[in-house]
Amino acid sequence: MLIGAPRLSGWQTSLAMVRGMRRVSVVGTVGSGKSTFARALAARLNVPYVELDELNWGPGWIQASAEELRNRVNEKIAGDAWVIDGNYWRKISGLVWTRADTVVWLDLPWPLTFIRVLRRTIRRSLSRAELFNGNRETLREAFFSRDSLWLFAIRAARGRRRIGEQRLAQFGRADLTVFRFRSQADADRWLESAILDARRSNG
Length: 203
Known about the structure:
Layout lengths: L1 E2 L6 H11 L2 E6 L5 H12 L3 E3 H5 E2 L3 E2 L2 H12 L4 E4 L3 H4 L9 E5 L3 H18 L11 H6 L4 H8 L3 H12 L5 E5 L2 H19 L1
């Protein structure tokens, strides 16, 4: 669903959108596929991709302070073009949106995102895949620690849509285009149309 921008039809919607998009914030709950979506969009728009997780988590899973994270984010959003994925509202509030011209909200069903979190965590833990800044997930930390990602996914589900709508109401602007997708199929179709139109505009 398109919020905060005129409704256009067919490929014209994405063509106008692609030509106007330079700074995109991709948000959504854990497991919504923000990073995968944002990486693909950044590649198609030929702009830098920024992952807030990488800015927040240092080696040994040490988190940046709110001030440190705000400083790092400010450096990134000062650029003319980018795609940034992540939330971190408790630390940086709507900082990214102050410079964004487009927000993509992956508002997918909670059961889907929860299953994705479980599968992803198990896969990463067993494969010992290296994440940002040399960190690796473990089953013990993911499921049995105070900072369990599994528990975080459950807590994050509470009122997530209401909170997301409140943030849009608080930080949205007349010139901020917001795309809200409630299914993976809709998000994939939108991204594919953006890819095709990016090729048209570049060709």
